[in-house]
Amino acid sequence: EVQLVESGGGLVQPGGSLRLSCAASGFTFIYYWMAWVRQAPGKGLEWVASIKEDGSERYYVDSVKGRFTIFKDDAKNSLYLQMNSLRAEDTAVYYCVRAGWELDYWGQGTLVVVSS
Amino acid sequence: DVVMTQSPLSLPVTLGQPASISCRSSQSLVSSDGNTYLNWFQQRPGQSPRRLIYKVSNRDSGVPDRFSGSGSGTDFTLKISRVEAEDVGVYYCFQGGYRPPFTFGPGTRVDIK
Hints:
By secondary structure, chain A is an all-beta fold. Chain A contains no helices and ten strands.
């Protein structure tokens, strides 16, 4: 059974940093693109970032370019999102999602609140 | 970037009646490899999103056959043949393309009249 378990969310001040983690299991992690998708409170879904299975390609939504970094550790079957220079508009539930365009399996999400 | 629009944004439906959601993209979603990476997701209240349909019309495992997807180019439709109470939630279309950036539609909220 595919499982994606996010962690690392919490309350952070504007300008601060946070690293989200996603522990993957139930599939061969090294074979899949992975992604982060977020949802601001009461709003719709927004694709944030994707990483190719070998880590050689990374893509970001314009609003986070230069501030967020997606990376993975295949030895730990884990996906990460390093978030720097956080803004109030980054407040959202962040979902770890398997694959590129497929987005076939989703985690339960972790809440990030950016507020002073 | 590709912009996705949906209509309606709110859809009250009667149990047992059909429902239809339209999704339009600002440019053709036919990729250079010949595929159309248009997916549909359902998000029930308080839950994570769940994929229902991939590549326009392919139903995911475990998705009831009352859900169907169709369309081509820039115009796509999700249909529910007979709405059930468990179908309440928000439905999103999504364009994947061959490479990012990817975009979701704004969502259509389906509830029971």
